[in-house]
C-alpha cells in the first residue's frame, strides 16, 4: 500500500510539473504551443484509438507535436515488439522532456530504439518511412492555411494506403476568435477550417467529441484509401 501511495504521488507530482512546463511554454509562444495544458487521458485515448484497433501487429507510428508527452505516454504501452514510434516535436525544451520519458519508461526497458525523437517541425521531417498511424497534436487553428495544406498533404503522403491519421480541434475556438481577435485573424481561422473540411470530406472515417478535456475537443480520424483491388483475370477460354 505504501509503495502504491509513493508511486501514485510520484505520478501526480510529475503531472503537476508537466502542467507548469506546458504553461510556461504557452506563455513563451502560444501560437506554436497551441494550448495552456497538456491533453487529458480521455483525449489521448481517443487520438490513439487506431493503434488499439491494430494492436498486436508491428506498426510504424508517427506522433507530431508531442509536447510534454501526454499522448506519447498512452502510445508507448501499445508498442508491440517490432513496432516503431517516431516523434516530431519543434520545441527543444519539450524534446528534452520526451527524451527523458523514453529513457525512463518501463515498457521501453531494453528496447529504447523503438522510439525516435526528432527535434524539428513535422513538415521538415526527412524520411521515406511510411506509417500505419499518424497522431497529430498540432495546433492547426493557429497556423496559416497554406501551412495546414502542406502538412495535411505530407501526412497523407506519409501514410500507408489504408493507414489512419488522427488530429483534434478544440470546441468553440472559432467563436472565441471571432469575438476576441482581429478580423484578419478570424478570416485566417475560417480559411484553415475550410482546408481541413476539404480533407474531412475526402478522407474522414470517424469523428468524436471528447468532453473530458479542457477545453473539450473534437477528434477526427482520416484514412488514406487503399488502392482498389486489381480486376480478376479473365477466365482462360472464356466465351466472348
Ligand atoms: C497543442 S500542443 C499538443 C501537445 C500534446 N500532443 C498534448 O496533446 O498534450 C501542440 C504541440 O505541437 C508542437 N508543434 C507546433 N508546431 C509544430 C510543428 N510544425 N511540428 C512539430 N511540432 C509542432 C508544439 O511545440 C506543441 O508541443
Q: Can you walk me through this structure?
A:
The protein is an alpha/beta fold and 240 residues long. The chain has helices at residues 2-28, 30-33, 41-47, 49-53, 72-75, 92-104, 145-158, 173-180, 183-203, and strands at residues 60-64, 84-88, 115-118, 131-136, 159-170, 204-210, 217-223. The protein has a single domain (39-223), classed as Rossmann fold, CATH 3.40.50. It is 43% helix and 19% strand. A seven-stranded mixed β-sheet has the order 3-2-1-4-5-7-6. Helix 5 links the parallel strand 1 (60-64) and strand 2 (84-88). Helix 7 (145-158) runs parallel beside helix 9 (183-203). The radius of gyration is 20 Å and the shape is globular. The model has no long low-confidence stretch (mean pLDDT 92). The structure holds S-adenosylmethionine. S-adenosylmethionine is lined by residues 32-35, 38-39, 64-67, 70-71, 88-91, 94, 121-123, 137-139.
Biggest sheet overview: 7 strands, mixed
What is the string of helix and strand elements? HHHHEHEHEEHEHHEE
Beta percentage is 15-25%
**What is the CATH architecture assignment?**
3-Layer(aba) Sandwich
Q: In CATH, what is the homologous superfamily?
A: Vaccinia Virus protein VP39
- Extended strand count: 7
Ranges where pLDDT stays below 50 over 5 or more residues in a row are none
Number of helices: 9
Q: Any idea how many domains?
A: 1
Distance between the termini: 79 Å
What ligands does this structure carry? S-adenosylmethionine
Shape field: globular
Q: Give the helix/strand class.
A: alpha/beta
What is the CATH T-level topology?
Answer: Rossmann fold
- Main sheet: strand order: 3-2-1-4-5-7-6
Amino acid at each position: 500500500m505504501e509503495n502504491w501511495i509513493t508511486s501514485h504521488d510520484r505520478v501526480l507530482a510529475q503531472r503537476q510539473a508537466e502542467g507548469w512546463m506546458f504553461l510556461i511554454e504557452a506563455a513563451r509562444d502560444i501560437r506554436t504551443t497551441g494550448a495552456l495544458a497538456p491533453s487529458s487521458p480521455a483525449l489521448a485515448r481517443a487520438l490513439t484509438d487506431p493503434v488499439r484497433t491494430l494492436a498486436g501487429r508491428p506498426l510504424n507510428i508517427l506522433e507530431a507535436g508531442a509536447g510534454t508527452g501526454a499522448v506519447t505516454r498512452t502510445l508507448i504501452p501499445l508498442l508491440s515488439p517490432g513496432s516503431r514510434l517516431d516523434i516530431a516535436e519543434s520545441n527543444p525544451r519539450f524534446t528534452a522532456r520526451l527524451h527523458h520519458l523514453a529513457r525512463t519508461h518501463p515498457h521501453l526497458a531494453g528496447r529504447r530504439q523503438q522510439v525516435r525523437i526528432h527535434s524539428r517541425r513535422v513538415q521538415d521531417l526527412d524520411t521515406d518511412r511510411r506509417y500505419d498511424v499518424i497522431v497529430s497534436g498540432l495546433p492547426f487553428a493557429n497556423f496559416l492555411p497554406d501551412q495546414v495544406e502542406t502538412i495535411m498533404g505530407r501526412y497523407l503522403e506519409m501514410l500507408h494506403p489504408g493507414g489512419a491519421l488522427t488530429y483534434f480541434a478544440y470546441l468553440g475556438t472559432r467563436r472565441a476568435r471571432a469575438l476576441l481577435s482581429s478580423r484578419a485573424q478570424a478570416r485566417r481561422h475560417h480559411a484553415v477550417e475550410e482546408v481541413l473540411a476539404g480533407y474531412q470530406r475526402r478522407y474522414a472515417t470517424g469523428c468524436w467529441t471528447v468532453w473530458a478535456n479542457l477545453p473539450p475537443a473534437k477528434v477526427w480520424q482520416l484514412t488514406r484509401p487503399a488502392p482498389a483491388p486489381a480486376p480478376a483475370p479473365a477466365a482462360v477460354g472464356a466465351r466472348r
